[in-house]
Write a structure and sequence with these properties.
Elements (H helix, E strand, L loop, with lengths): L5 H12 L9 H24 L8 H16 L22 H39 L4 H15 L7 H4 L1 H16 L8 H11 L4 H18 L5 H17 L7 H10 L19 H15 L7 H16 L4 H19 L5 H5 L6 H31 L10 H9 L5 E4 L4 H6 L18 H8 L5 H10 L2 E6 L4 H8 L3 E6 L4 E5 L5
Parallel strand pairs: 1-2
Antiparallel strand pairs: 2-4, 3-4
Helix pairs in contact: 1-2, 2-4, 2-5, 2-16, 3-4, 4-5, 4-7, 4-16, 5-14, 7-8, 7-9, 7-14, 8-10, 9-10, 9-13, 13-14, 19-20
Length: about 500
């Protein structure tokens, strides 16, 4: 919520709620913003609640909760891997420890319902963070529509993981530095607190260094203040950003880890790190083509630094689809002021002058306080009902029955598992073969071997893995090719199967 224009938001709200309060110039337009914000946030919150369980459809959620639980229990931070048998003891840090502890706190308070509701709460805040600044630049209806489009394009990454929890802080920091640069001033040094918080929540914080540098460049080019007080404040802010990020249990390692991840050989084998594909992301392709077509008309001209920033975001998304949220959530922040200036028909200022003459918008203005109270009350009631009535769980990535069956039969030896089941095994305190920490672990050709074992003719690779890692049982989805290989492998047999997972055990490993 820090990105909201607090002065304007709180300044008009009390007057709007007092009976008979005089209408200041523009107060009606501000109240219309508030009315639409209230209604749209209620709609967004209800939509999130309707798909609440989908926030748990990622195996990483399970191990993030477990790591948070272990940090809380041990009152210490890990420095080596204690969750896999294949890389046990290898260097590994819980760089996103704060997000992991927040996820664990939500789980402790409300089980998986609590984790899903935490995600929904964060997204509801993010919805407001995007809509409110937009509605100060363009007509609120257009701002609401644009916000829904942004959320539609980024819904693929709405999962209960650290990257979701950091979004309010990310928007606070990037929005703050960008608007400061555009206004010809240095950013508030309070944004350094946002940087420190960002660094402890998610590894994407180094992107904030780039955003701040580009914001300074935009400031410098536009205002030419070579030796001004604001320039010195900017330079001091930029110098302090890395120091703020190192206020972290792991110090400089938090920054170094982002370099390590960028060079990880495992990234090509992880779906969320794949490159953009127009065949797989058709809606995004259509959206980008529409924007490109609009740019070719020549009606909107952005400043050079804005273009550079947007091209950087586009490159990041094309390289790794996991960065889609950066592109679509930050693009409005970067270009909205210039867009409103170039297209006066959609600008807030032009619309605000006509609000007093529109009956529908005047009705919205009068009902804004009631809409705010009603929306907040309904959302609180819906959240409370979800906590007590919903029965959400991470079913798609949690083969609980298969793991229980393996334990019941007393399987011995290490497990060889599918990547998507690693989080569930960590949650069940079973050392994994591979899991979602592959951005730092599972190197030296390990992920390549896993990929090869799942291809035709992969029997030799999987036999090597079984022998090298002391494998006694396996856990794979039914459609996995390795299930067929294990069916044919001498000395191995199925001991359990359902619609989600198949368990094989080697001879002599079952009691």
């Amino acid at each position: 919520m820090a990105m909201l224009n607090a002065t304007r938001f709180h300044g008009f709200l009390p007057g709007a709620m007092r009976a008979g309060a005089p209408s200041a110039p523009g107060a009606g337009a501000q109240r219309v913003r508030l009315f639409i914000a209230s209604v749209m946030t209620l709609v967004a919150g209800a939509a999130f609640l309707a798909v609440g369980e989908s926030f748990l459809n990622d195996p990483d959620t399970l191990w993030h909760v477990t790591v948070g639980a272990d940090i809380w229990a041990s009152k210490s931070f890990p420095h080596v891997d204690a969750y896999s048998h294949s890389f046990a003891g290898a260097p590994w840090i819980a760089k996103e420890w704060l997000s992991q502890m927040i996820l664990f706190a939500a789980y402790s308070a409300g089980g998986w319902n609590g984790v899903a509701l935490l995600s929904i709460s964060v997204l509801t805040i993010v919805f407001l963070q995007i809509y409110w600044p937009l509605s100060a630049q363009v007509k609120p209806v257009y701002a609401a529509l644009a916000t829904f489009v942004v959320f539609g394009l980024t819904s693929e990454v709405f999962l209960a993981r650290p990257h979701l929890l950091v979004l309010p802080v990310l928007l606070w920091f990037v929005g703050g530095v960008w608007r400061a640069g555009a206004a010809g001033r240095a950013p508030s040094f309070w944004l350094l607190a946002a940087m420190g918080l960002w660094a402890n929540l998610h590894g994407s914080f180094t992107f904030g260094f780039v955003a701040a540098a580009l914001s300074f460049l935009a400031f410098f080019i536009a205002h030419r203040r070579v030796w001004s007080r604001e320039t010195y404040r900017w330079l001091g802010f930029l110098a302090l950003c890395p120091l703020a990020a190192m206020i972290h249990p792991y110090g400089y390692e938090a920054i170094w880890s982002t370099i390590v991840i960028a060079k990880s050989e495992a990234l090509p084998y992880i779906m969320e790190w794949r490159a953009f594909s127009a065949q797989e992301d058709v809606l995004v392709e259509l959206a980008l083509l529409a924007l490109f077509a609009g740019a070719l008309t020549g009606r909107v001209r952005l400043k050079p630094v804005s273009i550079v920033f947007l091209c950087l975001l586009l490159h990041m998304y094309f390289t790794h689809v996991r960065f889609m949220y950066l592109l679509f959530m930050l693009a409005p922040i970067i270009g909205i002021a210039e867009l409103a200036k170039e297209l006066p028909a959609i600008s807030f200022a032009r619309w605000a002058r006509r609000v007093e003459n529109d009956r529908i918008e005047q009705a919205m203005a009068r009902l804004a306080p009631q809409a705010l109270i009603a929306s907040a009350g309904l959302l609180v009631a819906a959240f409370a009902a979800a906590v007590s009535l919903a029965d959400w769980s991470p079913q798609r990535s949690y083969p609980a029955a298969a793991i229980a069956a393996a334990r019941a039969q007393g399987v011995q030896g290490n497990v060889i598992n599918d990547y998507s089941f690693g989080g569930a095994l960590i949650y069940e305190r079973i050392p994994t073969f591979v899991d979602g920490r592959a951005d730092r672990l599972f190197q030296d050709g390990f992920m390549h071997d896993i990929h090869e074992s799942g291809l035709a003719g992969g029997e030799g690779v999987i036999r090597m893995q079984i022998e090298k890692y002391g494998i006694g049982w396996s856990l794979y989805p039914p459609a996995d090719k390795r299930v067929v290989l294990l069916d044919k492998m001498e000395g191995w047999r199925r001991i359990y199967e359902d619609d989600f997972a198949v368990v094989h055990a080697a001879a002599g490993t079952v009691r």
